[in-house]
Amino acid sequence: MHVLHVLHRNILSQVQDDLRHLKETISNAGGSTEIIDLKALESAITRTEISVREKAEQFIQASNNQVVTLPSLEAPGIKRTDAFRNKNSAFSMKSVLLNKQKKTGSRLLQPLVVAREGNKPGPNAPAPGQQAKNLRNLQVISNPAHPVARDLLHDKYGVAFPNLVNRRDDQEKAPGKVVTGTSVDHLSTLPKANRVDATRTPPPISEDDAKKGILSLIERGLIPPAAELTLEPSPVRHHQAPVSDSKLTNPILSHLLPFNPIPFILHPILSHTFPSRMGSCRECAFSLHAVCFKGLDTGISQEAPPGQSNRSLRSCEYIVTQTLPSTEVPAPVPTPASELKSVHKFVIQNGKTRVTSQDYLNFKQHYCLSWGSILTLIVKLEELFSNFSVPIAFIDGDRLADLALVFELEQEPSLEHFMTCILNGDDVEKIIRTPGRRYLGPNGTEMAAIKIQSTWRRHKDRTAYLIYRKQKWAAGVIAISWIMNCKLSMIRKQLKQTRLNQLDRFRIRTKRLKQEWPRIQQSRRVIIHLPSMGYPQHIRDDLSNISLLQNLQMARLCDIADPKVEVIYICPVEVNEEVYQYYAKLLAMKARPLSSTKKPGEEDDNIENRYKIIVPDAVNSFPTHNMSLSSILMYSPRTIKRIRNLIKGRDAYIVSGVVNKDDVYVADLLDIPILSAEPEVSQLYSTKSGSKRIFRSGQVSIPPGQFDIYSLPQLHESLSQLVTENLHVERWIFKMDSEFNGRGTAYCDVTPHLKCYSWALKECQRYGEKWAKKWAHEPTLIKVSAEIPDILSRHAHPVNSELYPTWEGFLHDFLKRGGVVEACPPSESVTALTVDVLIEPTGDSKILSMGDQIHATSPLMCWGYSVPQASVEPAVLSAAIEKTTLACKLRGIMGYFSIDFVTFIDPHTMEQQVWAVDLKLQYSDSMAMTNLMLYVTGGAIDPTRASFEVPVKRKREESGRRRRRRVTDDKEPPPNPNRYAITSTRLLHSNLSVIHYSVFFQMCRAHGIGYDIKEKAGTIFTLVDSSKRDHLGMLVMSDDLQGSLSTFARNLSVIHQEISAPNMQGESNFQSAIDDIDNILGTTSENVE
């Protein structure tokens, strides 16, 4: 715009000079006597007119092709140097005059044109009336809404504006009748069927519809609103907008100016003001050049040539003053800056910004309002590039300005932020990232020294810190360990003291129990049965079904046979309603005395109130810990509270299983005694080695053997000595101290694999009676000791192959826990029997049960019992029991315990031998099943005769009514009161879990498996588990042993056939039990014959 104004003024100056030159020629001619050449004057005017017309056309063409830019942010006036002002005084005067005209603002045009000298009007100035008319026309033209403005522009300047007609006014003024109706055709829309069903095929789009545009098609529904439209080709063309066109550049300015000027146009006022002919003047070129430089905002000064006269400048000033109106024309509406925002770029070379470059000056001018924050970032960039010796970097000024707005506050920009403002960022970043680049810049040597010193100090301090942290960590560990050790020691002391206090209270309660036992036996009392297996943790960890094993003795409920006893049974498994109902019916089958006068209903009601089955509330809280029942009860406070309420104010005591410290803890919580010895005493003498001590002190016959073996040399030495002393014993048995039911048992047949065995027998025969002397054994002992290790490693076998698959594993645990080595009876027919004894607190003892063992899977693992025993003379057995009981009393043992014996015929003396092999200080399974047998029959066991008798009625005594006399006088044999029972709590069949107990009992009833209350014979089951249902207990009674064994085997066979299929036999021990029963039946038949 400044160039256009300058060009505008230069054209006026040229026209003014031409007119002045013409005027001087005429005035000079008028003062002389020469004749004026009119043709020359006309040719001069014609040349001036043609020149003005050509310049006007160039001005209009340049103005139409110009690009409108925003006005400069700087002040319109630019300060010049004093030198320039002194050399161009006329130019400066014209600028001051124009500035004064802009500042006045009250008048748009000057009414008079000031002459070059003085304040008088010039000779060629228009008249005052004409000036007023021009001023009024200019005001009219400045208002486009004026009704005369259009005609005035058309008449004077030939400008035709578009005909804007107010249609509303035309309609109001339109005469005649108004015709209503549509003037266009209806447009097609989406059919209703397609609007209802979007899956239908849309109608085709015609060419006429397509001409209406995409928006019309979308509004009419022909194109779905959610459709993605792509126009090919795209209606938007991206290209660079031209700032200037070299073809339209003014040819006059192209050779005068040192740069390519912006195209310009001539204002319409100029073409209207100077219609006359004028001549061109070369003198106006410098004036145009100077004015153009004055109008630019670049701040570059240009001096005029020395040949330029002040007259030309004054002439230009005169013409501009005469022709320009005093009122400024309104500037066009500027284009938004965001649309024309140009990219400002500048260069930072060798850490310094090129501040004199035109790009940098344009950038500084464009962002003058926010230059402070931008300059801060430029300084940081210079410092960065200087430190890293970056040769050159091209900066994007616009991005830098945006970055300055973000980091205008205290936050410091990072290198990544600066990289977004650098056009050659990849190269710059590569240079900066180069190792050691920082030390090539200024002060690089100092920075390298600082880096080396800081790295060394860091390494030194880091090493010292690591040592300090390690020492601190070690000190913390030591301190924490010491604190934890102190706390654990204190807790252990407290627990130990608590255990001692509990043990002291246990002894006090046991002493009180001994004193009050006769009274308690005669009064009403509560017996709490706690069938806990308090074995050591390593044994319980190997038991996969410890809860089921602890529940094999549910027959303890039969203690309510004494009318003065109430039973609380602590059950280790969940019990459902079906099991509750079964035991309610079973306990209602109690045999009544023959002289009883109570009604059955009254006695049944009394029985239901005298037993409770309680499941601890923490029974499912420790599924993976294999805790004993007493431990679970200890962590069941609600169950403890319930038991307290049940025994409150009544005499009560606990009958436990395998006693441990947790039983004492529970007893202390309930404040009641335990009918048992102290836990340490009970655990000591329940081991295999402890039982050997009891038997030896009681002088009971035991098999040859050694106990308390804890090392392999001791094992080899002991076994060699035993083999040498007992050459007639073929098999030797190894038993762990703490195991039970054959779990920790192994055997080895030594003499069949002993190479020196025949020689040893000859040595024994050679020495004869002297073979009992130790010195006679030495040669044989040396040879046997040499072969024992190899025999054990090759021919020793664990009994429980699932728990100990190899001898090495068994030997490891055997030596770790201790054990015994004893001889196996040297006979093919060996019978094992179990006797259950009770030592009362007062010291009295009585035999409660005695029965022969039945073995299923192994001869060393008990499966069931035959009650009463029929393999040993009662007197011999009673004597051995009496000796063992006396030894137990001497060691403070009381309560329930069982003794295992084996009997066989000695092949040398042909006499029956009875060996005591095991002692278990606990309530046994055989004792529980014997109680059930006594409960349902009302019978009793006579240990002196080894018989089990039940009360029976004669048939004539069955009714008090009168009976018709029998015709015959034959006397019927009296009923047999003797009964033989086969019991087992370890029946296992996996197919039992697929049927419910109700179906199982219906099946048994269909096959005649049941119990006859009158005959006091038959089959009774004990339910062990209500969830899996794969374990059972069974009791079979008959009046002879063979009948009981046969019935038991038949029941097992029937049950197996009913619950098994050919393709689903399941896991069971039924068949092995049947085989063992068949062997017993064969032995019994031989004995009878």
From TrEMBL:
It holds the Pfam family IQ. Residues 951-981 are annotated as: Disordered. It comes from the Eukaryota. Residues 951-960 have a biased composition (Basic and acidic residues). Residues 679-942 form the IQCH-like ATP-grasp domain. Signal peptide: none annotated. This is IQCH-like ATP-grasp domain-containing protein.
